[in-house]
């Protein structure tokens, strides 16, 4: 009987310790779920950067739906509710999101950290021709500032750094991991930049004829010239005078390729294409993915490399 008593005591202690261990593990798992940062972004590139830097410590939601042009997007009431529940809201700034200023005033900043990803980045202004188109249209952009910063990999790296700092501010105990993930992303952006430099420095032609003025940062970075049909926003239609000037410029400079975008109606660009008998190629401003691209696992880097391939064809 004495032996059975001792065995019973040992069994009781074992069961008690096992139960405590399981409870501890359960609490740890729950705690880990609670620690996962909830991040909302205004557009695809920012969501991509946040996912790469945050890894499995974050849940990222992109407000702009797949296949929708961010220039055209307006947040729903549900979006606004979700923003107020989030830990971080990352937006581009530079006037890209016309709705942001109004939304920011209704966000509880004690709960949600607001991150303007273009903060402390030197922004380019529109060219004289783009300004003319801007004045013909009541757009949402801040004065004549070009918001398409992410198309220059060196500036995309600065946007990613701003995102990294926000994650560290909200979750300082995982600073080392965020720093490591950022460095991996920064290295890939540097490699992308080097690929663009290597290819585009060898091209004979330098004129990039585009459907809208989204590529000023890219062309400025690599010594090219953007010739844009529409203004900073794709729905800014050119004046008849501007359209005539573009056609004349394309003919005089023997431009044989015109770049379209997958999320924008190419109606006006097709007019120029037909007039100068040009070949159409896609130059993606990376503002969003199509459902098909999402299904295929495409991302910022794969599409950037496809852009480079098309630029090489057009500028050879």
UniProtKB/TrEMBL annotation:
Q: Which PROSITE patterns does the annotation name?
A: PROKAR_LIPOPROTEIN
Q: Does the keyword Coiled coil apply?
A: yes
Stored Gene3D superfamilies? Nitrogenase molybdenum iron protein domain
Spell out the coiled coil positions from the record.
175-202
Q: Which GO terms describe its molecular function?
A: metal ion binding
Region named Disordered:
127-147
- Protein family: Belongs to the bacterial solute-binding protein 9 family.
Origin organism is: Shimazuella alba
> What keywords were assigned to this record?
Coiled coil, Signal, Transport
Protein's name in the database: Zinc ABC transporter solute-binding protein
Q: Which GO terms describe its biological process?
A: cell adhesion; metal ion transport
The organism's superkingdom is given as Bacteria
> Compositional bias of type Basic and acidic residues: which residue ranges?
133-146
Is Signal a UniProt keyword of this protein?
yes
């Amino acid at each position: 009987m004495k032996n059975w008593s001792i065995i019973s005591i040992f069994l009781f202690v074992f069961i008690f310790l096992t139960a405590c261990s399981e409870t501890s593990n359960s609490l740890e798992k729950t705690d880990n779920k609670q620690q996962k940062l909830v991040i909302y972004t205004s557009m695809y590139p920012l969501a991509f950067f946040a996912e790469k830097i945050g890894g499995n410590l974050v849940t990222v939601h992109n407000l702009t739906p797949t296949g929708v042009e961010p220039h055209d997007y307006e947040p729903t009431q549900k979006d606004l509710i979700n923003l107020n529940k989030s830990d971080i809201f990352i937006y581009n700034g530079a006037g890209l999101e016309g709705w942001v200023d109004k939304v920011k005033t209704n966000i509880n900043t004690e709960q949600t950290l607001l991150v303007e990803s273009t903060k402390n980045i030197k922004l380019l202004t529109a060219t004289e021709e783009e300004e003319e188109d801007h004045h013909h249209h009541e757009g949402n952009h801040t004065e004549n500032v070009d918001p398409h910063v992410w198309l220059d990999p060196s500036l995309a790296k600065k946007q990613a750094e701003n995102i990294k700092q926000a994650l560290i501010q909200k979750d300082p105990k995982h600073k080392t991991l965020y720093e490591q993930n950022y460095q991996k992303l920064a290295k890939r952006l540097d490699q992308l930049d080097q690929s663009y430099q290597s290819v585009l420095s060898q091209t004979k032609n330098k004129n990039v004829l585009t459907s809208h003025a989204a590529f000023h940062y890219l062309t400025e970075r690599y010594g090219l010239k953007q010739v844009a049909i529409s203004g900073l926003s794709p729905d800014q239609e050119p004046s008849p005078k501007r359209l005539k000037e573009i056609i004349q410029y394309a003919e005089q400079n023997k431009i044989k390729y015109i770049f379209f975008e997958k999320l924008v109606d190419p109606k006006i660009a097709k007019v120029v294409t037909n007039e100068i008998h040009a070949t159409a190629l896609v130059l993606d401003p990376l503002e969003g993915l199509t459902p098909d691209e999402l299904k295929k696992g495409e991302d910022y880097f794969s599409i950037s490399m496809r852009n480079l391939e098309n630029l090489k064809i057009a500028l050879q």
